[in-house]
Amino acid sequence: MTVSRDIIIIGSGIGGATLASSLAPTGAKILILERGPHLQHTPEARDDVAIFQKGFYQSDEEWLATDGERFLPGNYYYVGGNSKFYGAVMYRYRKQDFTPRPHPEGQSPGWPISYDDLAPWYDEAENLFSVRGALGQDPTDPPRARDFPFSAVPDEPAMAHIRQRLEKAGVTPASLPLAIDIKTWLAEGKTGWDAFPNTGKGKIDAQSGPLAQALKHPNVELWPNARVTRIETDDSGQTATSVLVTRDGREERLFAKHIAVAAGAVQTAALLLRSANTVHPAGLANSSDQVGRNFMNHNTSAMITMDPFLKNDCVYQKTLCFNDFYNNSPAGTGPLGNVQCLGRITGNILKAQVPILPAFLAKAIAGRAFGWFLTSEDLPNPQSRVMIRGNDIVVDWQRSNMQAHQQLIAQTKKVMKRAGFPIVAIRTFGRKTTSHQCGTARLGIDPHLSVVNPDCQSHDIANLWITDASVLPTSAAVNPALTIAALALKAGKAISQQLLANKP
């Protein structure tokens, strides 16, 4: 049986699902291919021991570091992609993130489009993901034409007290923009959502948000457990014609007029490289030699702050942030980054991170601990890259700008001390933390220096599109999910126009 569609979308995460929702109203025949299964509701979904200590949901896929070490990267393969486990933070990049600017250890090159170009798509993406937030709290917020779709997720009493402490400490706490229906989430289980899988509708992820909208249309179809191994072109190499898919132990060839890749920054790069042919010997869409290069992964640390006299009785905790050091340090050395709450750290989660802690001690510490996530920009570097070696994915992450991150840690420690936390502990994450991976198929105007144009269309192959974090020219220092969605919506408009132009 020959399977042919107008559009095949590879990956059902934020980029793929959002693109599908954008294209569904056109009536075009759309097939979404997802390598993983549907995430089933089981008792483990809200079990912090199963998730954090036993790795119940973790893939057994290993990647290879350039030093030869194999490691489990922490990627998830389910319908909805990594967003099934994400912290649901839906930040817009700050306006300054789109312009070139110096950092303590290098230069951010900026984007070929401006914040104003992307702002209407941010509006649409926030509606699609039902984002909750508050205007007028964060001085770094970029200008917007409309308010958040819903009011901010409320602080729990302990976090309302922390907000007051931070204000007295001299920073400007703000409500995180979140894709969470808090009443529904808590009705499904009394836990936080950060790193917990979404098996219901409380967290608006790629599946419960845009994919559910897309699948309401009869012209949209989803195939789970369908792993794409290769993209093929015609003899000229100028048109992508089909994909090879392994499903139920069989290999199938599926044809489409347009192919969109949204498998994640590492897997998308690997697929394009593996799809090399005689016309594209270095991999598809890679005449610029930029596929797999400029891999960025945010410099991140977890911080725990404690006041022995302050109990943390939060259930979810993740409602606060501050960006006082986002655009500059107090010393004027340049941008440092974002500080936001982690989800509630339980004793079992803490023990998973520090296994030598006895369970009773981990529980006692967690009862007084407030967790924070510190993020600094990782600058693009062509030598930081994803490669393939036989069947292996090789990741050579050459992290940059760590001086800025160390300054962010130092400034945040000072804030927390002033806020009444005498105990501050920090842990900086390494290459196994790949939740914000991006940059391997960068967006740009010059086809010699980039992989796709500002509509996420391949410079080399006109009917090939990339709509995930691969295309981000810079990592900024905030969560990338909303920016990925905004770019996918922008790409959807461009594809829709082509479909209309080619209608008989």
> How many extended strands?
21
CATH topology: FAD/NAD(P)-binding domain
The best one-word shape is globular
Q: Helical proportion? A: 10-25%
CATH architecture: 3-Layer(bba) Sandwich
Profile the largest sheet: 7 strands, mixed
Question: How would you characterize the overall build of this protein?
Answer:
It contains 11 helices and 21 strands. With 504 residues, it is of the alpha/beta class. The protein has one domain: FAD/NAD(P)-binding domain, CATH 3.50.50.60. Strands 1, 2, 10, 11, 12, 13 and 21 form a 7-stranded mixed beta sheet that branches. It has a 6-stranded antiparallel beta sheet with strand order 9-15-16-17-14-20, with helices on one face. The chain has a 4-stranded mixed beta sheet with strand order 4-3-19-18, with helices on one face. Helix 1 packs parallel to helix 6. The chain is globular and about 70 Å long. The model has no long low-confidence stretch (mean pLDDT 96).
